[in-house]
Design brief:
12 strands, outer membrane lipoprotein receptor (LolB), chain A, mainly beta, single chain, twelve-stranded mixed beta sheet
């Protein structure tokens, strides 16, 4: 075969289409943001009032910060599987180890089905669905760069982005503030191990 650099672009495009090149990119969505982002969500839980939640990502470090309406903050380190709970009222923190699966993330081995492309919070996203071990259908709408814009579980919208702002996030937002102390575990031991 001749040198591919000498083939016309149209021929290269047709060869890639015939080889299935675009389809492999669509088979598995990006589940974590690939760039820094600040998202505001409306969150609805059964028999509870809708709440507002702010989620920020320090993408290169795989760090997620979730600020809820009750002034609590949770920092997830997706690389080390460490969870840090910040309690501003008492200026304390607790560190927990263990895999915290993101609510919109499918279980290992789940088969994802690609759905329609839609617009949520002014951004284009693709719906992806799967049936969980509990036989409940989960659907997420993800941007190509991994930002969750909507989560639907069993036909009910649980989370939906209201606003999305891309831009660098300050690293200190994802660290324990220097004036915070470790909280004591209920049994009296340190909760930082």
């Amino acid at each position: 075969m001749s040198d591919p650099r000498r083939l016309p672009l149209a021929v290269v495009a047709i060869l890639l289409l015939l080889a299935g090149w675009p389809s492999w990119a669509e088979e598995a969505p990006q589940l974590l943001p690939t760039r820094d982002v600040d998202i505001s969500y409306d969150v609805t839980r059964p028999q509870q009032a809708k709440i507002r939640q702010r989620v920020r990502w320090l993408a290169a470090e795989h760090l997620e910060r979730v600020d809820g309406p009750d002034k609590s903050t949770t920092i997830f380190d997706r690389s080390t599987h460490e969870i840090t709970l910040l309690v501003p009222a008492s200026r304390t923190y607790r560190k927990l180890n263990g895999e915290a699966r993101r609510p919109p993330a499918p279980e290992a081995g789940a088969v994802l089905k690609r759905g329609d492309d839609v617009v949520v919070a002014g951004l284009h996203c693709t719906n992806w669905s799967w049936t969980g071990e509990d036989l409940i259908v989960h659907e997420v709408c993800l941007t190509p760069d991994g930002v969750l814009l909507r989560l639907i579980i069993d036909g009910q919208t649980i989370m939906q982005a209201r606003s999305v702002s891309y831009g660098p996030q300050r690293a200190e937002l994802f660290q324990v503030p220097p004036d915070y102390s470790p909280a004591l575990a209920p049994e009296g031991g340190s909760a930082t191990d």
